[in-house]
Amino acid sequence: MTITINGQPYDPPADKRVSLLDLLRERFDLVGTKKGCNQGACGACTVLVDGERILACLALAAQYDGRSVTTIEGLANGEDLHPLQALFVQHDGLQCGYCTPGQIMSAVALGNEFSRDAPSSVTSDLDGPATPSREEIRERMSGNLCRCGAHNGMIDAIVSYLSEHS
Asked: Can you give the residue range of the structural domain that contains 146?
């Protein structure tokens, strides 16, 4: 079996104790995925597995044998940024940039959640489609921390993305 990372197949690590985060950063040099708290509390290591967000620091790489992992490096199309990456720049949704990859990956997953009408804890109408309100977006992004205070720009970027791509 293999782990597919950004569209490329790789052999899973021989050591079953290696975290997905360490595999990405240390074996494959995909350093866009950041090691923040290494305890699952900050969201800096957020990646997508089969389109859903996970915290790579809490995941053993061996668990993802046969699965598809997307990192921040896998979003862009060559030199062309993913629309959400471009909107983060346009809306000043970053300052130091350390949390930005995890924020963007989480926001991409958030868009996927809205497209399949997955509710959150603040979704008001569980029988209808989830509305991408600022409150709803903040709730869904609450697992990703930013110490610089770029949250308003990030929310603006996500609102813009959802209005353009939904």
From this structure: 83-164
